[in-house]
Amino acid sequence: MSVSLFPGVGAGTLLESTLLAEDRSMRIGAIHRLDYNEAIVLTHDKWKFEAGGIPQYTFLLATARDIDGDSHDDDEVLLLRVDGTAPLAMESDLHAVREEALRAALSSNGDASPSVVLDVNLDPFTKNRVSFTGLRCRILGTFYETDVDGSKRLDFGADVDNFYATSTYRVLKPIGDGLSEIASYLKPSEKDVERVRIGAVRYSATRRRAKAAKQDDSAVTVNIHDFIGTKTGLLGMTRMGKSNTAKIIIARTFVVSERRRANGEGPIGQLIFDPQGEYANPNTQDGTEIAAIGDKHVRIFKFGADGTQPHVRPLGINFFDPDQVGAVQGLIADKLRSDGSAGYINDFAVTRFTDVQGDFGETTRAQRGRLILYASLIRAGFALPKYNAGTTRPFSVLVAMKEPLRDAVEQKNSDRKLFTPAGKTTFAVKGSDIRDVVDAIIELRNAGDAEAVKFCDDVRWTSTEPIYTGQTGQSGNVRGWRNLLDLKEFHNEATQADPAEEIYAELTQGRIVIVDLHVGAPPIVKTLSENITRRLLAKQTSVFTSGAVPPSIQVMLEEAHNLFSSDKYKDDGDVWVKLAKEAAKLNIGMTYATQEVSGVAHQVKANTANWVVAHLNNTKELQELAKFYDFGAFAPAILSSEDRGYVRLKTLSSPYIVPVQIDRYDAHLVNEARAAAGDPPLAPKN
Length: 686
Known about the structure:
Mean pLDDT: 86
Radius of gyration: 35 Å
């Protein structure tokens, strides 16, 4: 009885049909040397040429499958990635043969020119021998078949559990759908799975051979649910396609949101901070904008909006609207901190300037606080609105004041009529008269007038008076109203409600909200962004602590190195740090973009689920990137390749990094999103 010394290896049909079929892979060589982490592949110039070339980072498959064998060993295929070249065992001997041939040509020819000596014809046998080369490959893992509920499934393990003699293996280059299967492989999980195309496999900046061999469009699909409720990092230099990738993710997420809505589930709101205006407006780089998805689904908040377009809302606050005074108070409190820790600042920050329905006393004191607050704004140069918010009545403020004090105030102003009855106990003061009234009250109080003393005896007045006068009894002169100068750009009479409240309401409805910040001074943009984010966190936290599940919201941030630096990450009170730390439990997904990988705190990167890495131009950033997964292997290409949209992609469900040319965000994607919402496609542009 004969005994075979070579094991037969099973012949799984799923591996054959998905990876090894003739139209899905091409043989390019064999294994020369193999261990658990690295393989040296033996190939030939002719085989490489016929396969359309083998660039660095090419995926290869190594299989010991023996379809004629009678063994039933589990079938498996090793996944390799070409990391470089490797010398073969006899390569030095072959170099010596070639060198000797060159020396002989030099000696036997009278013409010693390079074309004569170097182009000497080798005999066919020697020429073939020197055409073999070695490829150094990293072993990424093993594809194998598993049985799940009676059906076969392709599975992947990130290591090798057995290997055979090297002569047993065939090595193939996956192409077409076979390559797409590898590049789009998702680890089995309990997450929802919805595959969407994000681009095509791209191994190198030079694509001549790939295009000639029609191997340049093997689709890469991802699970869009990987990007929902997790952190995604878009890393790369400016103009390398980060915003284009973000638009694809946003549009695809919108489709999922609309499908959820149709199924009676909660939709997904998306908040985009847009410092360059590239999400709200069309641009030549990406061809179209997120706003093209439709007015019903996209809300744009921007400076200068007058409210005449329902989907374009004013970005700012009506500082003279009692209903928005909470937001005004928050912005002013932030600015006042430049005065240090004076007691009046803390008092101003925590007191209440809003009316309390059914509580006459609290409402009366709030009105008095707003009177001097508005006087402070006027002193800082804030333009008075023409009308009371939401009405056509000329702007005025209401205040409850007893007759003796009213008479005294008017006497201080040459008996000018300053108060108009507006109720049983309240009187209206025109905007143009506010400062005159406040100045008179302070003067009377300082002179010992009993009614004026009682009128001013409340924390709302005492904490606001230093802002108006620039003086405080505790520390003398303060900046006071001068702190408000930088806030004037926030003031917008057309704003009917606090934008932060309005934005959150839109997000809970599953809309895409774009905060267009490309017009506005940096301090204003910073303060407003923080105010919106702080309100978002407060709302989500309130829902979470009540025992309910907060609505799903995605946040898109640019210039993340300014928001999540290592120094800032130590400050738990910083709104962006709080967002990064608490986003997951509050059902907030976050996409952040930066060109400075090292500028983002390690904790943020360590909790990043999806990585999209484009060109980076210095080794410091590459060294930081190399700390995560095996991005270090791609460092030379990331440094040298400046092609827009050429990225290395690692998603939550993908077990390895895939080099990808990201698709362009275009009208097709816009129409896909519109179709999910039941809207007609955009009319084609002429």
